Amino acid sequence: MGFPTVVAICGKGGVGKTVFGGAVLRVFWQRCLRILAVDADPAMGLRYLLGLKDDIKTLGDLREDLIRRAKTDRDPEQIAGAMDYLLLEALTETDKFSFLAMGRSRSRGCFCPVNSLLKESARKLAQNYDVVLVDAEAGVEQINREVMSSVDSIVVLMDNSQRSRHSVELIKQMAVDLNMRARMGVVLNRAKDLGETVHAAVSALEVPVWGTIPEDEELLRNDALGRSVFDLPANSPVLESAERIVDFLVEA
């Protein structure tokens, strides 16, 4: 078993990162890669985009189970030994990809040993895949703390809003503060609406542009009908753009 390529997709709420993440996942699947999708956004929009059901056990649920076990006088080594098996309870497997949802833990306080157990088991699980694709919340701190210590590429989706540009700055600084050695790039969403001001602002951020995503009427229709990203036609403009961006993400 080797190490997978880990790609984190970030951006402010409503920028389109989940839809873009679904398109990227489909491209990875078309290339016959083994994919682990991790939905690190508590809203868990990715599962709907991928056509998954509601009754999914999350890592937050698993964390609660572990905290309850740890509060009883059970042997810590016994809990650690069962961790890999317990993680499989939260893993959804399809013929196209595997899926983990982070969810949200309800317990207050610091449970660093539990987080460490979860992260180590997730790291070992990830070695069974070629690609780990993470749909992140706004930033990368949660990924580093609870999912993966090592990320290869951080993709930040950006639209023409000032808040979106501010998110890019925050994510860039957060990655530096966490000493994440990932390369980072911007993908411009709804590209036809982006003017010179936005392109100048991106240049000022000193973050490379890895691609653009155009408006796609078929995608909007697909989303409104609650269909999976796998129902999109092969000539979808979003899929064609995702193809070019994936070429960049997987290059050595």
Describe this structure in words.
The longest helix has 16 residues, at 162-177. Helices cover 46% and strands 16% of the residues. The model has no long low-confidence stretch (mean pLDDT 81). A hairpin with a 4-residue loop joins strand 3 (92-93) and strand 4. It has ten helices and eight strands. It has helices at residues 17-30, 45-49, 59-71, 76-89, 112-126, 141-147, 162-177, 196-205, 217-224, 237-250, and strands at residues 5-10, 35-39, 92-93, 98-101, 131-135, 153-158, 183-189, 209-213. The protein has an eight-stranded mixed β-sheet with strand order 3-4-2-5-1-6-7-8, with helices on both faces. Keywords: ATP-binding, Nucleotide-binding.
**Derived structural class:** alpha/beta
Task: Tell me the series of helices and strands, N- to C-terminal.
Answer: EHEHHHEEHEHEHEHEHH
CATH C-level: Alpha Beta
Number of domains: 1
DSSP strand (E) fraction? 15-25%
Helix segment tally: 10
Residue windows where pLDDT falls under 50 for at least 5 positions: none
Provide the helix percentage.
Answer: 40-55%
Identify the overall geometry.
globular
CATH superfamily: P-loop containing nucleotide triphosphate hydrolases
Number-wise, the strands total: 8
Sheet with most strands: 8 strands, mixed
How are the strands of the largest sheet arranged?
A: 3-4-2-5-1-6-7-8
The gist of it:
This protein is of the alpha/beta class and 252 residues long. It has helices at residues 17-30, 45-49, 59-71, 76-89, 112-126, 141-147, 162-177, 196-205, 217-224, 237-250; strands at 5-10, 35-39, 92-93, 98-101, 131-135, 153-158, 183-189, 209-213. The chain has an eight-stranded mixed β-sheet, with helices on both faces.
